[in-house]
Amino acid sequence: MNTTANTRIDDAVPAIVDWSGADADVRTELLRRPTQAVAAQTRAAVAAVLDDVRTRGDAALRELTARFDRVELADFEVGVDEFAAAEAAVPDDLREAMRNAAARIEAFHAAGVPKSYEVQTADGVDCARIVRPIPRVGLYVPAGTAPLPSTALMLGVPAKLAGCREVVLCTPPRPDGSADPAVLVAARLTGVHRVFKLGGAQAIAAMAFGTASVPACDKLFGPGNSFVTEAKQQVAQSGTVAIDMPAGPSEVLVIADADADAAFIAADLLSQAEHGPDSQVLLLADDDALLERVRVELSTQLTVLPRADIARQAMARSRLLRVDTLDVAFDISNRYAPEHLILALRSPRDWLAKVEVAGSVFLGDWTPEALGDYCSGTNHVLPTGGAARAWSGVSVASFQNMVSVQSASARGIRAIGPDAVTMARAEGLDAHANAVALRIAKAAA
Ligand SMILES: NC(=O)c1ccc[n+]([C@@H]2O[C@H](COP(=O)([O-])OP(=O)(O)OC[C@H]3O[C@@H](n4cnc5c(N)ncnc54)[C@H](O)[C@@H]3O)[C@@H](O)[C@H]2O)c1
Ligand SMILES: N[C@H](CO)Cc1c[nH]c[nH+]1
Ligand SMILES: [Zn+2]
């Protein structure tokens, strides 16, 4: 332990680094996520797992589950009896909280369901976009460090709103071979059709390629550790299946001013640090005294946190940064593109226009990030690792295909056909030109 003034500061708590005047590119470089070496190791391990499941199916799943989850399973699918046992095991207050959360998630997501639309683009030419559910989707619910039934709600509710025909869910088995009961109850609450006790890259491989017991899905969803996230990216590159986004180890970036509540900020930082040793939590503030108060609070709160060991490891990749102005803090945040952004500022809504990219934003002292994790109604499956620059959190649209439709009458082909013929000839594609010209001639007769 170090000593500052009268307070003992936990060794894991980062020192305050002064970034006043630091070059913007240098700052961005310093906030990089996992090193290339770690990523390369993970890539190779995941590629081997995917290959094994693709070639050997269920036999590979059994071996990989024994190796990584330390449990021998003959059958991965959750049956009627296990669902019934889960319903009996989950306490009423948790069931009630999950029902309430599901209702708010549904209310928020239902308001954003993309609608079909039709436009007449020329006389006799109608164009439409119709919305269709993706037929078979695969959801991943993490359960390595801790089972996350809230994730089953975040994925199951929009899948149900979209109307997907078959919703499959994988979650890692517990040491006794069962699935977490709360995950099963949450899955049932949202109408998930089939649940398999599979975790990690092998679960992703099973849902991407299909095996004798697990159906191949059209699109995969959900967060997970670096193995799960890498597996999703590799199966997406193989072109057999789509994915929602890279949703890896949790991150939060807090921008705070001098009057922010240090205890609240420390609690929010620790709430994401406890997700895993590879979480990253960042605080940017323009006030030395506030930063010091947060260090003290982090030390104090760590002493009573049950998952302090995990949070301490995450602290090693985390930073407390002094910036010149709040404008600089927003510039850094926009370059970093955090999964979660907390604005612990006075009049936080006035600052919202400065946010260019972030997965989800939390305004003011009374909006802890944990509310969004569970029950405000927004989705907690969010892009990480800088992916928020171009990817968005899960929504009903993530579970839908948009199909475009066009219809031309004889009047329509006369009206717009000549443009097509001219453009086709310019591209040297005479068969294209002919397909249109034939119809123009017949429509004119
Ligand atoms: N971005 C988001 O939206 C979001 C949401 C919730 C959680 N998360 C993140 O999800 C992650 C959950 O991770 P988790 O570990 O708790 O659960 P997990 O279910 O993602 O991973 C557990 C699985 O990883 C596999 N595994 C473990 N060690 C392995 C190894 N050495 N080699 C190969 N496979 C191995 C095992 O099969 C195990 O079943 C956390 O990092 C959390 O921060 C992100
Ligand atoms: N904070 C996580 C997303 O990074 C979501 C979660 C689930 N349970 C608790 N938190
Ligand atoms: Zn969380």
UniProtKB/TrEMBL annotation:
Pathway: Amino-acid biosynthesis; L-histidine biosynthesis; L-histidine from 5-phospho-alpha-D-ribose 1-diphosphate: step 9/9
GO cellular component labels: cytosol
Pfam families to which the protein is assigned, alphabetical: Histidinol_dh (PF00815)
Catalytic activity: L-histidinol + 2 NAD(+) + H2O = L-histidine + 2 NADH + 3 H(+)
Domain of life: Bacteria
InterPro entries: Ald_DH/histidinol_DH, Histidinol_DH_CS, Histidinol_DH_monofunct, Hstdl_DH
Enzyme class, UniProt record, top EC level: oxidoreductase
CDD domains (alphabetical): Histidinol_dh
Any one GO biological process: L-histidine biosynthetic process
Cofactor (UniProt): Zn(2+)
Residues binding substrate: S250, Q272, H275, H340, D373, E427, H432
SUPFAM superfamilies for the chain: ALDH-like (SSF53720)
Cofactor, how bound (note): Binds 1 zinc ion per subunit.
A GO molecular-function descriptor: zinc ion binding
Binding site for Zn(2+): Q272, H275, D373, H432
Key words of the record: Amino-acid biosynthesis, Histidine biosynthesis, Metal-binding, NAD, Oxidoreductase, Zinc
Gene3D superfamilies attached to this UniProt entry: 1.20.5.1300, Nitrogenase molybdenum iron protein domain
Residues at the catalytic site: E339, H340
Its biological purpose: Catalyzes the sequential NAD-dependent oxidations of L-histidinol to L-histidinaldehyde and then to L-histidine.
Similarity comment: Belongs to the histidinol dehydrogenase family.
NCBIfam families found in the cross-reference section: hisD
The name this protein goes by in its record: Histidinol dehydrogenase
Source taxonomy: Bacteria, Pseudomonadati, Pseudomonadota, Gammaproteobacteria, Lysobacterales
